[in-house]
Amino acid sequence: MSEETAVDSQELGEKIVVVLKTIYDPEIPVDIYELGLIYDVFVNEDNEVKILMTLTSPNCPVAESLPAEVEEKVKSLDVVKDAEVEITFDPPWTQDLMSEEAKLELGLL
């Protein structure tokens, strides 16, 4: 991987985070990134993106629609060739995964 490619994928990663911060859990007024629902973002040299994420619970009412929304919004970035979301519950989500900002927003600090 060339130096230029590394910078590009980091830049793309930052753009993806910006997009993820526009997606909100419908039950909690905090975006999914600050909630800690995004575990990892992988970008390969072809600008194909894989996002490993979780939900606040396995019975989450948006278990179907939220991953689809994440895929759709990430795919809307011009440089992204494809995007795939994988849902995991390992480790299960807890409030400890939330950013300080999210905890403050929800009055948990």
Question: Mind explaining what this structure looks like?
Answer:
With 109 residues, the chain is an alpha+beta fold. It has a single domain (3-94), classed as GMP Synthetase, Chain A, domain 3. Helices cover 32% and strands 17% of the residues. The protein is built from 3 helices and 3 strands; from the N terminus they run αββαβα. The protein has helices at residues 3-20, 65-75, 100-105; strands at 38-43, 48-53, 82-87. A 3-stranded mixed β-sheet has the order 1-2-3, with helices on one face. α2 (65-75) links the parallel β2 (48-53) and β3 (82-87).
Key descriptive features of the protein:
single chain, GMP Synthetase, Chain A, domain 3, 109 residues, alpha+beta, 3 helices, three-stranded mixed β-sheet, globular
Amount of helix: 25-40%
Please tell me the CATH architecture by its name.
Answer: 2-Layer Sandwich
- Model regions low in confidence, pLDDT < 50 over at least 5 residues: none
Task: Give the mean pLDDT.
Answer: 90
What's the gyration radius in Å?
A: 14 Å
Q: What coarse outline follows from CA principal-axis ratios?
A: globular
* Strands side by side in the biggest sheet: 1-2-3
Q: What structural category do the secondary elements indicate? A: alpha+beta
Q: How many domains comprise the coordinates?
A: 1
CATH fold label: GMP Synthetase, Chain A, domain 3
Got a strand count? 3
Q: Determine the number of helices (DSSP H or I, runs of at least 4 residues).
A: 3
CATH H-level superfamily: Fe-S cluster assembly (FSCA)
String of helices and strands: HEEHEH
Task: Note the gap between the termini.
Answer: 42 Å
> Which sheet architecture does the biggest sheet show?
3 strands, mixed
CATH C-level name = Alpha Beta
What portion of residues belong to β-strands?
A: 15-25%
